Amino acid sequence: MNFPNLRKTAQGWKFESEEALEDFAFTNLKQLLGLTPLKRQYIVNSQICDILAVDDNKRLVVLELKNNEDRYILQQLTRYYDALLEEKPFKDLIDYTQPIELMGIVPKIHRDNLTDRKYHHLNIRFFKFEIITLESNVYLQLKDLDTDKVFEIEIPSQDAESTESLPNPPKLLQKLLRSCEPEQLKIITEIRDQILTFDQRMQEISSAGSIKYGNGKSKTSKFCAEFCSDSKGKLLIFLWIPFKAGKSKKIGRARIGINYETGNALIEGYVSKGIRIKNPPFNKERAKKMEIIDKKIDNKETLTYEEFKLFSTYSYDKTCIYSPITNMVGVALQYWLKRL
Length: 340
Hints:
Blueprint: E1 6-9, E2 12-15, H1 18-27, H2 29-33, E3 36-44, E4 47-54, E5 60-65, H3 73-87, E6 101-106, H4 111-118, E7 124-134, E8 137-144, E9 150-154, H5 171-178, H6 182-196, E10 203-207, E11 210-214, E12 223-229, E13 235-242, H7 243-246, E14 251-259, E15 264-270, H8 284-298, H9 305-313, E16 323-324, H10 325-339
Parallel strand pairs: 5-6, 6-7
Antiparallel strand pairs: 1-2, 3-4, 4-5, 7-8, 8-9, 10-11, 11-12, 12-13, 13-14, 14-15, 15-16
């Protein structure tokens, strides 16, 4: 059996990425939880909500999904709640006189999640998800921790031959990919797939030593991403995302550094044209250090002077975004859509 959105582990099946989990949940939300999906990766006041949905009574439901245990999911949902209540998007589809419901969907509940919720006044539900195998079928199973009610839906297998194929990469991109390591090739291919399947207006434009993604190549065209190379033939990626690490309303062309071992990425620097940036490139050594820093920040541990200095190097307006590259691409795509 082939499951394009899953990977096999020693314990069983796991979603390939958080984006894969979101994709499946968003597509099957009505069948799974009886909710009508509105938007995914919705940006409101610099906050990025995984999924917005409504129930049959037009009540807003905000879902945050994690592919791993996360002790700060409640804090994230609280920020989404505040931003959504302030902006009140989709007023024609949502009845804001009803309380907003917040849902956290995780494979494992951290004990801090339950402690935080115990003293929280907002309406928050936690679901523990599990991928189970029954005979030859694979299912996503959600369990409501308050009621023990179980929701289940089959994850369909897919023959490799039936996967919808994208056009072959342009010759320039093929040349750049030939010099990539296997883990880099995998992530770059996933980025390209994510971009080209996002919207039917998306085009892949190869010219003047780079491959850009947008709605055309005229002076008024809007772009969201670009592949090119440096003088040594190293593949570089740029995304059109807000300045100040997502806090500004203005969009800039950001050079992205990727840890190809984990799939996490950060902003190396903003540059309007060309490839030169002031900050040092994000190499393997710095990537390993950022993983340690990221874990320390999550656990609220003190950084050493060297760690703080590295963190500050890639910070903009005192903010350093270090998150899965698929999430950063998702942000670029959403802002591209808004600019059309």
